[in-house]
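pinned: reference chain
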Amino acid sequence: MKFKLAKTAYCAYLHSDGHAVIIHQERHPKAGSIQWAEIIEKIDAKCRFTGRIVFHNPYRDHRFRLCLNGASEIRASLPCHENGSDRTREMGLTICSFTIEFKDGSELYWIRLPDIISDGLSYQPDNKDTFNPDCQSWGSARVETIHRSAVKEVA
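pinned: its structure tokens
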């Protein structure tokens, strides 16, 4: 299933069970800031991480669109000191990675230094949210759309 991301996409969450939540925000002249949620029941890629990954500006950040459209596997590693060099360990910096693998075997790989550089991505391994088909709100945002996975018939 291909997803087109609207310009109003403000923040997005990709959960380890494969569901995604996109928070949209729009400025209304009389009502002020309006937020709503769009939920995707299951993306096509395998999610090989625990918790969730937060994309802080999904419309401008191509990583979330790649996760939705074209990825076969998504991986994230926990931030730790052992992943770095001798110098980063001396400085006490944690290093982690984020990987998107595609169906043709190619992959994009980011080394992240969350202690010193903000790159629009947060990894929250302790989050335990799962897909709720009856969800009507997500945080303070009302759920406008839930994209359901296609049902596969078994012969």
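why pinned: Residues 81 and 147 are 39 Å apart (CA to CA). Residues 62-68 form the longest helix (7 residues).
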